[in-house]
Amino acid sequence: MKFFLSLGLLIVTTGTAMAQEDPRAFPDTGYTITDDAIWNFFTQYGGTNTFGEPISREFLLMGTPVQLFQNAALQVQSDGSVQPMQLTDPGLLPYTSIAGLTLPAASPATAFVAPSPDQPNYMARLQVFVQAIVMEPFLSTYNASGGPAVWGLPTSSPTADPRNPSFTYQRFQNGILFYDASAGTTQPLPLGSYFKDLLTGQNLPGDLASEAAGSALLGQYAASQPNGLARPTVLTQTDLTDAFVPDAT
Question: Do 112 and 174 belong together in one domain?
Answer without folding.
Answer: yes
